[in-house]
Write a structure and sequence with these properties.
By secondary structure, the protein is of the alpha+beta class. It is built from two helices and six strands. The longest helix has 10 residues. The chain is globular, with a radius of gyration of 16 Å. The relative contact order is 0.25.
């Protein structure tokens, strides 16, 4: 599945919802563990413990069995808010721009970029550690990838 920003935003609008802001996404991902390094707490996984679908194995060559691709939602325990897969599996679109203007240090990228959060099955401890709630990544809005998805939020009506 390849989901570009426009696809995710159109679905959210159709469903009467919205894509989360970066702050909303991070608050939801932490599940009540304010400031925690990981969605499950401050300590990395212990040896043999599996808490999220990110790259387990020798990156990028050999993933352990069951890793190196997406996993069904709910394969790991939910966080404190009851949300599944807030770390790893797929990067998730947010509604926030990565930068208010195009990055002058990368003039080859003429397409604006939104913030992705959550990391994916391709994030590895030895490479990027981007499945942490604080991590962020730019993604060109016209480009979907096999490890990018989204979730929607609802906000209560204002009185």
């Amino acid at each position: 599945m390849h989901v570009a920003y426009e696809d995710a935003a159109a679905f959210a609008d159709w469903a009467g919802k919205a894509l989360p802001t970066e702050a909303q996404w991070e608050l939801a991902a932490r599940g009540g563990l304010d400031g925690a390094a990981y969605v499950w707490g401050d300590e990395p996984e212990a040896a043999g413990e599996r808490l999220a679908n990110y790259w387990h194995g020798d990156f990028p060559w050999r993933a352990e069995p069951g890793y190196g691709t997406t996993a069904p939602v709910g394969s790991f325990a939910p966080n404190g808010h009851g949300l599944f897969d807030m770390a790893g599996n797929v990067w998730e679109w947010t509604s926030d721009w990565y930068s208010p203007k195009l990055d002058p240090s990368q003039p080859q990228f003429k397409v604006p970029r939104k913030v992705l959060k959550g990391g994916s099955f391709l994030c590895a401890d030895s490479y990027c550690l981007r499945y942490r709630p604080a991590a962020r990544r730019p993604q060109m809005i016209d480009t979907g990838m096999s490890h990018v998805g989204f979730r929607c939020v609802t906000t209560p009506p204002t009185p």
